[in-house]
Write a structure and sequence with these properties.
single chain, 0% helix, 8 strands, elongated, four-stranded antiparallel β-sheet, 97 residues
């Protein structure tokens, strides 16, 4: 499981503002994203891109109680490596499928 602390401002001040994980990794085509936001937000964008940077999937998700739980299906895509980018945090996790 990959877990990243993120700061949405891009400025490191020692505070963790988001923790998110993507699992299982490697996946069989399906994986789960769990995120805990430590600031107020209503929506977040999830981007899945291939190794060339081409966006292959995009999700606009509502945030409830500062948490996000999302299942993602990559089985319609070619097997390989993909980047998951969580909203404005621009933190990436590589997912192997």
């Amino acid at each position: 499981m990959a877990q990243l602390p993120c700061n949405p401002s891009g400025i490191t001040d020692g505070k963790t503002e988001v923790i998110f994980s993507a699992f299982p990794n490697p996946s069989t085509g399906f994986f789960q994203i769990d995120a805990q936001f430590f600031y107020k937000t209503d929506k977040v964008t999830l981007l899945i891109s291939d190794l060339t940077g081409r966006e292959v999937l995009r999700y606009e998700e509502n945030i409830f109680n500062n948490k996000l739980n999302k299942s993602i299906n990559l089985s319609d895509l070619d097997k390989g490596f993909y980047f998951l980018t969580l909203g404005m945090q621009k933190k990436k996790v590589m997912i192997s499928y």
